[in-house]
Amino acid sequence: MATKAALGMELNLSAMKKDLQTIRTLCRQRYLRHCSKWCGEMLMALQDVNEDPQEPLCESPAGGDGDGFISYLYGVVLRRLELRAPAVRALTDAVRRQPLLWQAWLELAALVTDREMLARLQLP
Fold it and tell me: Where is the Cdc23 domain (predicted)?
């Protein structure tokens, strides 16, 4: 959960759910339909927040015989989640499988920080 730690915020989901349920009850009592509907939608959105989305991303979806385009998309997702090392591995795999995929080269170039890192990569 690097993004939460980087932002310095701590989410207390049970307290959020309890507060939203209280607000929703008050809105229903006062016949505030739109407020009640909004609180209900927020509660529904919080139902699926229990698992960490980064845990399933630790394994490559392409496996050993995947497509270079899948590895590229996987690398882009990892980069957006600020997971640099797995993103570099996925994008390196993408350029090995599809050497003419320029988008993968550009994403990989944005992640390379110095010449030593570039020398360590095994590129075609």
Answer: 63-121
Q: Are residue 86 and residue 33 in the same domain, yes or no?
A: no
Looking at the structure, do residues 69 and 89 belong to the same domain, yes or no? yes
Q: DSSP secondary structure string, 4-63?
A: HHHHT----HHHHHHHHHHHHHHHHHTT-HHHHHHHHHHHHHHTT-SS-TTSGGGS-SST
Q: Which domain holds residue 110?
A: 56-120
pLDDT digits (tens, 9 = 90+) for 19-40: 777 776 776 666 666 666 666 7
CA distance 5 to 23: 29
State the pTM of this model.
0.54
For 50, 64, 80, the CA distances from 74, given in Å and listed in that order, are: 23, 14, 10
Counted domains in the chain: 2
